[in-house]
Amino acid sequence: MRRYLPSLSALHAFEAAARYMSFTRAAEDLGLTQSGISRQIRNLENFLGVPLFHRSGPRLVLTEVGATYYRDLALSLDRLQEISIDAVRGRSVDSSLMIGTHYTLASRWLPERLGSFIAANPDIPLEIAPALPSVDFETTRLDIAILRGAGTWLHARAIELFTEKLAVVSSPGLIPPGTRLDPLEFSKFPMLQNASRPSLWLHWLRVAGLSYSGRIQGTRFSHNDMLINAAVHGVGIAVIPISFIEPELAQGKLHMPFGDAIPSGDSYFVVYPERKAHQPSIILFRDWLVRQTRKYDRYGASRK
Q1: Whether the predicted pLDDT of 79 surpasses 90
Q2: Which ranges carry the HTH lysR-type domain (predicted)?
Q3: How far is it, in rounded angstroms, from Cα 219 to Cα 235?
């Protein structure tokens, strides 16, 4: 008996459109035209006999049926991908790990530690991908993530790793090493801004218990690596999570003339989907990561 299945192309088009909530971005992702995406989804809706999107001008909203269909479809496509990978490499995808985290943490904090896991588990393939704290653990393709937040994610389990701590840092060329300044003297120096966390200076003032009514302005950088590089070269001072700048602090390229790092109120957590909670490779990586961060106390970046 022939299976009651729509075309795979139509399913891909719908999954991408629902993930991005945009026909244009779905088309870019799949290498199709916007009209091609629209046609595939129209064909899928005709096949199912129900609308999947409400269309209000350029804005897309999933119908109730569409939202349920998307969640189930995303899981099914993930599973189809997994068994296809299994067939290609001759082993179960359960033995591999897709790890998601903040881009800067992935490029600066994680590599320093990851070597010991790879050395101890050479048969577990790893893939590192960017992930936002807003990741949907019901549908994500990630196996496990390292995320900043308050510790609550739907459809997921989370274990605290370490407290995020913030410091105002300077290069030795801008402020001599060993100098200790009153924290409010920061206003005497050019201030660098973080476009991805634009309120970070105000947040630092609040958690430091400082009262300041002046203007906070300065060159804005869209990425943490740019901001850190500018601080190292003496362009200005910056508020930076110290987990991002361990090498620069250790090498003396940056220092903390306005006082020690202070907790931001957030922590980093290892987070993984409930539906994958018993996958052996996830448990192995989770436990290794917890052991690594239990001793993570350099520059005051310890657990609470």
Answers
A1: no
A2: 6-63
A3: 9
Q: Which amino acid is at 207?
A: V
Token pair of 190 as six digits: 């050019």
The per-residue pLDDT for range 48-73, each reduced to its tens digit, is 999 999 877 767 899 999 999 998 99
- Burial, 14: exposed, middle or buried (Cβ in 10 Å; 0-12, 13-18, 19+)? buried
With beta carbons less than 8 A apart as the criterion, state whether 37 and 16 touch: yes
pTM above 0.85, yes or no: no
Q: CATH for 8-89?
A: 1.10.10.10
Q: How many CA atoms lie within 13 A of 193 on its CB side?
A: 11
- Which residues on neighbouring strands pair with residue 62, listed in sequence order? 53
Mean pLDDT throughout 274-294?
Answer: 92
Within the chain, strands assigned E span: 53-56, 59-62, 97-101, 126-130, 144-149, 156-169, 193-194, 220-221, 238-241, 262-273
Which residues, listed in sequence order, are joined to residue 267 by a DSSP beta bridge?
149, 163
Instruction: List the domain boundaries for the chain.
Output: 8-89, 91-304
Q: What is the mean pLDDT of residues 290-295?
A: 85
Pairwise CA distance, residues 140 & 160, whole Å: 20
Task: State the CATH class of domain 91-304.
Answer: alpha beta
Pairing between β-strand 193-194 and β-strand 220-221 as defined by DSSP bridges: parallel
Nearest to 103 by CA among 184, 236, 196, 234: 196
Give CA–CA dist 149/268, Å, rounded.
Answer: 6
Across the chain, mean pLDDT equals 89
